[in-house]
Design a protein that fits this description.
With 109 residues, the protein is an all-alpha fold. It is built from four helices and no strands. It has one domain. The protein is 64% helix and 0% strand.
Amino acid sequence: DAPNEQAQCMFVTYILTACLTAIVRGEDELHLPQTKAQLVAEVVAVLEQVVAEPTPGNILPCALVALHHLSKMKPHTPWELEDRFLSLAIHAVLRLEEPSYDYVGQVGP
């Protein structure tokens, strides 16, 4: 539903902003109340909800980018979480519908 999607977008944006701020400062650690493992687990929970939806919307790419940036931060992400988010990402990408473009019909004479 829309309020949940908005909250998910805000959360993922929060993580992206924190990671990018750290990267710009030349830091490899986040100075947040949550641990990196907690943040990754929360993004994985968002991905689990998104993957269950018929259309993942904009949250899927944002969550994947957030996980990418989190992976650059210390400490190392626990293997179980990495495995889970990679599995979810692959599942989500494989479920995406093909674009409805008619490439043959757009080719000129």
